[in-house]
Amino acid sequence: MSDTGAAPRPIIRIENVTKRFGGITAVDAVNLEIARGEFFCLLGGSGSGKTTLLRMLAGLDLPDEGRIVIDGEDMTATPAYRRPVNMMFQSYALFPHLTVEKNVAFGLQEERRPKAEIETRVREALDMLEMGRFAARKPHQLSGGQRQRVAFARALVKQPKILLLDEPLAALDKKLRERAQFELVNLRARVGITFIMVTHDQEEAMSMASRIALMNHGKIVQTGSPRELYEAPASRFVADFFGAANLFAGKVVASQSDQDSRHSEASVESAAAGTVLRGVAAAGFKAGAPAAVMVRPEQVCLAREAPAADNAVHGKISNLVFLGSHHVCQVALDSGKTMLAKLSPAELATAGSFTPGDAVYLSWPASAARVLPE
Question: How far apart are the C-alpha atoms of 212 and 198, rounded to whole Å?
Fold first, then answer.
């Protein structure tokens, strides 16, 4: 039985939004839809436009062009205090002279909510984040993770439809940061509201977000799930941004599509590989077109003998590093290019014992490679 129901309305719709600061275009004609309940991430390097876009969603900056629609209502010119959103800043911005309880209650008091309602909502927010026993403490008496929870409680107590997070974990050390990532994801699942987070850290985005928009020079270059952006990047920029990638530049010598044209494969002649490489192509390529073949290090196999594989290159091991859960092997190919292979201890044991200077073959199936426009 077919589903004839309409698709759910996105809670946020950004339409051709542009923001300029003097002669600099910080956000350039961005279009984006975010579904209700998503943990959505705006990801990019410094100056990519991600924070400016977040500030426009919050109402702290107004777009020069375009519209911002929140829950079906045009909010383009609506001031920040009238939007159904709350923003948590990187610095947490807690009042040092107020207790935890009073910090969390501050926004509700500004709205002149009844005292009984304030007490109930503050208590519920602190208990949800396991901070009720710290209600009488001041921020300087808390750890970094505890201050973060207070900032979340203060944002959530106003019951926004959308919570905006500006680099929320930047001030935490590595171990606490990793724990806080899980807490944030679990928190979103419990409260059920839409989270939109800005970060420059691709590992943070991949471990937390249900969907990511990668930005560069004010534009969104690709939107998708973490797995889509990692395994099926649309460009060399996206491939290089997410983790380690072996990239071989060259030109297309053949291209073919399957019957429904949803998938295609291309063969690329690459001097850096010293051979023709095959991989999956998101779109058809014409013969002679410049292209790059990408394969992730964890998709690469290592062997002493020439393998029967779609793609194989030859070289010598220049370095082998043990990192606990895996080994990273650097191989200098015959062309001079350095290639990375990432193997688990079990995979390395199966492949054999290797030392720097050993001659090896690296191989991978065409299905593990991606052919990208150059």
Answer: 10
Its pTM stands at 0.84
Closest CA to 85 of 96, 101, 69: 69
Buried b (16+ CB within 10 A) or exposed e, 311-325: bbbbbebeebeeeee
What kind and span of H or E run contains 128?
helix 115-128
- Residue type, position 122, single letter: V
pLDDT in tens, 14-29: 999 999 999 999 999 9
Residue labelled with tokens 């829950």 = 71
Spatial distance between the Cα atoms of 160 and 181, rounded to a whole number of angstroms: 21
Structure token pair of residue 269: 């002649």
Paired tokens of 368: 């593990």
| Residue 364 burial by Cβ neighbours in a 10 Å radius (0-12, 13-18, 19+) | buried
Report the DSSP pairing between strands 162-166 and 194-199: parallel
DSSP, res 224: E
